[in-house]
Amino acid sequence: MKALHFGAGNIGRGFIGKILSESGFHVFFSDIDQNIIDAINCNKEYVVKIVGNNQEKVVTVKNVSAINSHDPKVMKIISSVNIITTAVGPSSLDKIALIIAKGILYKIKVKSIISLNIIACENKIKASSFLKKAVLKKLSTKYHDYLNKYIGFVDCSIDTIIPLVKKENKDSLFLIAEDFQEWIVNINQFKGTPPTIVNMKLSNNLNSFIERKLFTLNTGHAVAAYLGLIKKYQTIQEAILDKKIRFIVRSAMEESGAVLIKRHNFNKDNHFSYINKIFFRFENPFLSDHLKRIARNPLQKLEKKERLIKPLIESIEYGLPHSNLAKGAAAAFYYQNPQDLESMKIFSLIKKQGIKKTLMTVCNVSINSTVLCSILKEYYSICKELK
């Protein structure tokens, strides 16, 4: 069996690629970083240190190779693999869609009727469905029937933390990953028989798992990052050890959790246990990720259906507490990083048209909404504290 994975970064190598290799696939990594490609092809393997509750083990991921995403040979690989996965970031999916579309055309040319399933493992709700729409736009309508018959786009939820490794490590492929790795997929979207993949869970109710993860782990991560950067902390561990930030992050996750419990009928004790596990993961010094990495792409995180705004909107609709979610969203509007184009775009909008209009534009909310008023109140509070 063969798999093609786009994105040879932390999640790609430390989670998806590792699991596929352990499941018996030869994994082709496709990336634009030639140094990583050369390292994978030279070593034919890489090492991942798995850390958990005061335990750690080292695993070697084998049966791997790599190819540049711009190499035309990627098309032949697409036509021959059983599964394609991605971990490139939501903003890069459109570029990947063009490559996949060309690969599907080659697959049609060689008259392959072997089912191919594509799973976009991104921090985006229904990323695979989004990718499918992007691929269809790049294919002539005469090929759409083939795609709908033989190509599956399978939505999923992934949950794990893989921090950046310190630069002094001489092995450029070495990674540290947590032992908690959750990969849940929509069983109804596969073409043909779903592949047998280690620790992959097939679900008929994926939406609840997507929202549980996005509006708990990712919401908490984002709130901690934006508040931590205001205080000039560097890592998630530093931020979460600050008592004030810790209280706000925990409270924001509980506010979001109240929405999830109400909407999906989650067991309250089980969900609060899930929050406790996430806090342990935040506190783990081996997993202490950089706040600037967590905070990047704030425009995406502030979209109406995303981790900071959707739980805030729905907590207001349900008449539930929401002040700490509003604090997290407000901190995201205060975030400034010259290396993050989205953060500088928000800064430019605020400077040009003011915070109120910027909130309306970025979050797609009305001028008199409770959401806008709640975030504005916390934004002004942050500005006042920092004067």
Automatic annotation (TrEMBL):
Ranges of residues in domain Mannitol dehydrogenase N-terminal: 1-197
Instruction: Work out whether the entry's keyword set contains Repressor.
Output: no
| EC code(s) of this entry | 1.1.1.17
List the catalysed reactions. Answer: D-mannitol 1-phosphate + NAD(+) = beta-D-fructose 6-phosphate + NADH + H(+)
Positions of the Mannitol dehydrogenase C-terminal domain: 205-346
Entries under InterPro entries matching the protein: 6-PGluconate_DH-like_C_sf, 6PGD_dom2, Mannitol_1_phos_5_DH, Mannitol_DH, Mannitol_DH_C, Mannitol_DH_N, NAD(P)-bd_dom_sf
Residues binding NAD(+), per UniProt: A3, L4, H5, F6, G7, A8, G9, N10, I11, G12, R13, G14
Q: Set out the biological process GO terms recorded for this chain's protein.
A: mannitol catabolic process
Under Pfam families, the record lists: Mannitol_dh, Mannitol_dh_C
What keyword terms does UniProt attach to this protein? Answer: NAD, Oxidoreductase
Q: Which domain of life is it from?
A: Bacteria
Q: Any idea which GO molecular function terms this record carries?
A: mannitol-1-phosphate 5-dehydrogenase activity
User: Does this entry carry the keyword Cytoplasm?
Assistant: no
Q: Which GO terms describe its cellular component?
A: cytosol
**How far does the signal peptide extend, from start to end residue?**
none
Sequence similarity:
Belongs to the mannitol dehydrogenase family.
Protein name (record):
Mannitol-1-phosphate 5-dehydrogenase
Which source organism does the UniProt entry give? Buchnera aphidicola (Hyperomyzus lactucae)
